[in-house]
Design goal:
- 52% of the residues lie in helices and 7% in strands.
- The chain folds into two domains: 5-187 and 294-322, 3-Layer(aba) Sandwich (Rossmann fold), CATH 3.40.50.620; 207-287, Orthogonal Bundle (Tyrosyl-Transfer RNA Synthetase), CATH 1.10.240.
- It starts with a strand and ends with a helix.
- The longest helix has 29 residues, at 294-322.
- The chain is mainly α and 326 residues long.
- Strand 1 (5-10), helix 1 (18-31) and strand 2 form a beta-alpha-beta unit.
- It is globular.
- Helix 10 runs antiparallel to helix 13 (265-291).
- Bound molecules: tryptophan (TRP).
- The site of tryptophan has 14 residues, from strand 1, helix 8 and strand 4.
């Protein structure tokens, strides 16, 4: 049995943060042996919310370095930029004929984004975000898409498009499934539901020990824990939610010390930042390795792009044949 395939992607917004790791990257690294994996730098998707492309290349390289530093293995899994494999745009065009505007307007992700970013008029390309994403997945015949919860509605659209194509022209595409991580969301330092660059509530995968400490000092805690020895409620504390992820071995003790007023928030934050920093240490080391060998990083990207392109073209040959466009 050939391995099932994964296609996963992120928009290149620069250096990644812990939320990216917990929501997606950790899972990608784990799954790369079980599945044949493809990792996409969705640089065209950046245009859906910003027309400024000045930093897009640099951000792509920065993101790629974080991927490598976290353990994605370029020998196993090609990594590539969407913009460098023209088959994405070709399949996007074909898929755009297979879904209605109405259906795309019902996509909850676009509604949320329009609200968060105060967008009054949605651009045609932005509405088509999930169509391009479908082309990303199906060009590589992805069976599974490991993403965060927020992407599930997109994957549902991908399934519909795959079905529609197969019914109309004959079977080419699997119906992809979202693979969710159990712990798929890390809240922001300020307690916001999401860690996100635009909210400024992140810890970066590249933050050094001192930066992590400083960031952690600002983290939201139980507002009723006024003093060191006041009993606190870990269920409403952001720092405790990070302990759960990065300090599992001491979680019982932290929880009871907080509830009993046996630990103050400052000490608790310092314990947490120490744990996070020791988790980040090997990632930062690997990042330094790649930063000082930028040509190696570019070679990895170009190699990934040529491997990706070959597979994408094989799929397009099939598509064009089925459609009598060959
Ligand atoms: N929409 C994804 C995000 O914002 C990025 C993305 C683009 C993607 N193409 C994809 C994710 C294909 C998975 C599969 O994070």
């Amino acid at each position: 049995m050939p391995k099932k395939r994964i296609l996963s992607g992120m928009r290149p917004t620069g250096k990644l943060h812990l939320g990216h790791y917990v929501g997606a990257l950790e899972n990608w690294v784990k799954l790369q042996d079980e599945y044949e994996s493809f990792h996409l730098i969705a640089d065209y998707h950046v245009l859906t919310t910003s027309l400024d492309t000045k930093d897009v290349y640099e951000n792509s390289i920065d993101m790629l370095i974080d991927w490598l530093a976290c353990g994605l293995d370029p020998l196993k899994s090609p990594m590539f930029r969407q913009s460098q494999i023209k088959q994405h745009t070709e399949l996007n065009l074909i898929f755009s004929m297979l879904i209605t505007v109405n259906r795309l307007e019902r996509n909850p992700t676009i509604k949320d984004q329009a609200r968060d970013l105060n967008i009054e008029q949605v651009f045609y390309g932005h509405l088509g975000y999930p169509v391009l994403q479908t082309a990303d997945i199906l060009l590589y015949k992805g069976n599974a898409v490991p993403v965060g919860e927020d992407q599930v509605p997109h994957v549902e659209i991908s399934r519909e498009i795959a079905r529609r194509f197969n019914n109309q022209y004959g079977f080419v595409f699997p119906e992809p499934e979202a693979l969710l991580t159990k712990f798929s969301r890390l809240s922001g330092l300020d307690g916001d539901a999401k860690m996100s660059k635009s909210l400024g509530n992140t810890i970066l995968l590249s933050d050094d020990v001192e930066t992590v400490k400083q960031r952690m000092k600002k983290a939201a805690i139980d507002p009723n824990k006024l003093k060191k020895d006041t009993p606190g409620n870990p269920d409403v504390c952001t720092v405790f939610s990070y302990h759960k992820k990065f300090n599992t071995e001491n979680i019982v003790e932290i929880e009871s010390d907080c509830r009993n007023g046996a630990i103050g928030c400052f000490d608790c934050k310092m314990k947490c930042s120490a744990k996070i920093s020791s988790f980040l240490e090997p990632i930062i080391e690997k990042r330094k390795h790649y930063e000082s060998r930028i040509n190696e990083v570019k070679d990895i990207l170009h190699d990934g792009e040529s491997r990706g392109r070959n597979i994408a073209e094989q799929t397009m040959i099939e598509v064009r044949e089925k459609m009598n466009l060959g």
